[in-house]
Each structure stands twice: as C-alpha cells, then as structure tokens.
C-alpha cells in the first residue's frame, strides 16, 4: 500500500502535503470558506496528477468534505465524501472504526439529498462494521440506526 499512498506526481503531492499541514481547525464560517477555497484550488491545479488514493489527496478530500459540512454545502460535501470511500476501503480494510464513521457520514449526506436507496446501502455497510467496532449500545450506533430507519420509512413512502 505504500506505493498507493504516495501515488501521483511528486511535486503535486508535496504541495498538497504542505497545504494539509497548514490547515488548522477553523473556528468561523470565514475560515471554513478559506479552507474550502484552498482545497478546491489544489484539486483543480492537480487534476489528473494525483489519484484519490494518495494519502495527502485523501486528507484534502476529508478537509473539503468537513468544510462543506460546516458551510452546509450538502451536495458538494457528498461529492467529496463519495471520493473518499474507495481510498478508505483500501487503507482501512475489514472492520475499521474510521471506515465505519466515514460510511455513516456519507450515508447521512446521501439521505439528506433524498438518495434513499444509496443511503440505505451505505448506512448498512456502516452498521455492519460499527456493530463490531462500537457495539450496539454506542451513541453513534443509535444515531446510525435512527437514520437507517428514517431512510427505510422514506423508501416505503415513495
């Protein structure tokens, strides 16, 4: 997996690595907007140079997703979240709590966009991992089960 982690053009991932290290935890909407703009600029200037499996590109995708969530840009957050799923599957195989949480986040975004069948599938994947990693009594698990049930209810209404 080491080759995958640093796949792509050296100059591109080094630039992204520096950017990832620059980003601290934004506290205001303005700071989140700045973070998102920085991510978007890097994505466009490095288009075709870095695969999403590059570890720094993946961190930048996570950062862009977080920025979009904080700015309530749900559709864009989902776009970035979807791009993280395959690299997460690669780097966190099997029953890994980080992968479960990422699947849950993407599933909730799909649900918010009315993509109920996709959301249900993603939430089920999260559930199957989380019941092992977190246990059925964990607070995250309760939120996940509620979202899954709401999704199933919405599908019955359609």
Write the layout of secondary structure elements.
Elements (H helix, E strand, L loop, with lengths): L1 H4 L4 H13 L6 H17 L9 H16 L3 H18 L5 H16 L3 H18 L5 H19 L1
What descriptive keywords fit this protein?
158 residues, single chain, 8 helices, globular, mainly alpha, Serine Threonine Protein Phosphatase 5, Tetratricopeptide repeat
Fold and architecture overview:
- This protein is mostly helical.
- The longest helix is centred in the C-terminal third of the chain and has 19 residues.
- It is globular.
- Helix content is 77%, strand content 0%.
- The chain has two domains: 73 residues, Serine Threonine Protein Phosphatase 5, Tetratricopeptide repeat (Alpha Horseshoe); 66 residues, Tetratricopeptide repeat domain (Serine Threonine Protein Phosphatase 5, Tetratricopeptide repeat, Alpha Horseshoe), CATH 1.25.40.10.
- Helix 5 runs antiparallel to helix 6 and helix 7 runs antiparallel to helix 8.
| CATH topology tier name of the largest domain | Serine Threonine Protein Phosphatase 5, Tetratricopeptide repeat
Category from helices, strands and their pairing: mainly alpha
String of helices and strands: HHHHHHHH
The helix content is: over 70%
Q: Regarding CATH, which class of the largest domain?
A: Mainly Alpha
The domain count comes to 2
User: What is the annotated CATH architecture of the largest domain?
Assistant: Alpha Horseshoe
Radius of gyration: 16 Å
Number of helices: 8
Shape: globular
Strand residues, percent = under 5%
Mean pLDDT: 95
Alpha carbon gap, first and last residue: 43 Å
The major sheet is characterized as: none
Strand segment tally: 0
Q: Low-confidence segments, ≥5 residues, pLDDT <50?
A: none
GO molecular function, one term: methyltransferase activity
InterPro entries: H3K4_H4K5_MeTrfase, TPR-like_helical_dom_sf
Protein name: SMYD3 methyltransferase
GO cellular component, one term: nucleus
């Amino acid at each position: 997996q080491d080759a995958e982690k640093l796949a792509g053009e050296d100059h591109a991932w080094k630039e992204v690595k520096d950017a990832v290290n620059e980003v601290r935890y934004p506290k205001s909407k303005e700071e989140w907007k700045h973070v998102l703009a920085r991510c978007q600029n890097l994505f466009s200037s490095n288009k075709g140079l870095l695969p999403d499996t590059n570890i720094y590109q993946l961190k930048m995708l996570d950062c862009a997703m977080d920025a979009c969530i904080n700015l309530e840009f749900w559709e864009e957050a989902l776009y970035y979240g979807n791009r993280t799923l395959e690299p997460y599957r690669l780097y966190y195989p099997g029953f890994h709590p980080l992968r479960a949480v990422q699947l849950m986040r993407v599933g909730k975004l799909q649900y918010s966009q009315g993509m109920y069948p996709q959301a249900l599938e993603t939430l089920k994947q999260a559930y199957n991992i989380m019941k092992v990693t977190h246990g059925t009594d964990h607070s995250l698990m309760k939120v996940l089960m509620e979202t899954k049930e709401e999704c199933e209810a919405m599908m019955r209404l359609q």
